[in-house]
Amino acid sequence: MNRRITLGTLIIACVLYVGSTQLCGQNSSMPKFTDLAPKDMVLLDRQRAVVSATVKQRYGAALTRTKKDLPILQKLIDESVFAKSQTYELQSLGVAFGDVMASALPLHWVMITDEYGTDPTLRYKNTTLNVNVLTIISQRIERNERVSLSELLRMTSQQLAAYDKNR
User: Fold this and answer.
1) CA–CA separation, 153 vs 147, rounded Å?
2) C-beta neighbour count of 19 within 10 angstroms
3) Rounded Cα distance, 132 and 68, in Å
4) 59, CA 20 to 30 Å: which among 50, 104, 126, 167?
5) Kindly report the CA angle at 31 between 162 and 94, in degrees rounded to 5?
6) H-state helical runs in 18-68
7) How far is CA 90 from CA 51, 140, 154, 166, in A?
8) Three-class DSSP category at 81
9) pTM tops 0.85
């Protein structure tokens, strides 16, 4: 799974710097996208529930799946509510952040199947461009990097706009 994130990060970087995913990862096979099956939705909902329960317990708040959630999700990160060894919980935080991204940008939840397996991802329109939000937070925390959700959202928005401009 770590290799997929690297590829996903490279694709986003290529959009920003090159303007075309065709020039990046030319040796990789094209991913296959499918709609979420009911079992996939159940798994994502379980991960959302982990974050929702934590937010309710710690802060007495409820998530809205919109940009209004950014401060509370950021607070979970800043307060290290989930340790870097809690991969499932950190990936659940990625799902919650993915919901925010999907409400703010033209992204939608799908399943991606590629050389690394099958996982949920956010797909940009009907392109092959996707954001692997499941690990967007966990990988950074595991590498002891500072995570700014508003910055990740801003950068993704800019990169998607650059992609559209260069298509």
Assistant:
1) 11
2) 15
3) 21
4) 104
5) 70
6) 38-59
7) 9, 10, 21, 34
8) coil
9) no
Residues 32-61: tens digit of each pLDDT: 999 999 999 999 999 999 999 999 999 999
3-state secondary structure of 60: coil
What are the structural domains of the chain?
A: 31-147 (1.20.120.1090)
Report the distance separating Cα 68 and Cα 66, nearest Å.
5
Cβ neighbours, 10 Å, residue 150: 13
pLDDT in tens, 103-157: 999 999 999 999 889 999 999 999 999 999 999 999 999 999 999 999 999 999 9
CA atoms within 13 A on the CB side of 40: 13
Chain position carrying tokens 């499918």: 34
Burial call 52-86: b when 16+ CB within 10 Å, e when fewer? bebbeeeeeeebeeeeebbebbeebbeeebbeeee
